Amino acid sequence: MARDVGRQVRANGGRKRDESLLTRMVNAVFSFVKFAEFEILFFFFFLIAFIIFKDLTSRPEYNQILVKKPDGMDFWAY
């Protein structure tokens, strides 16, 4: 019992205050990811969709699908 005299206990969660800096940093990162999980997934979804669309439109053979009509009929008046 004498060994626990210098240790402080946090009020929330009962974690000990004498955790190392690395442990506290890792716990902070994990709590942030848990808090902002939806926003992170939302951002990654649009980032991956942008990369895939950019890759498809950069190839000339696929770019012709978006530019020319194969049968020559134009439905849009531009």
From TrEMBL:
Keywords: Membrane, Transmembrane, Transmembrane helix. This is Uncharacterized protein. The chain crosses the membrane at residues 25-53. GO terms for biological process: response to oxidative stress.
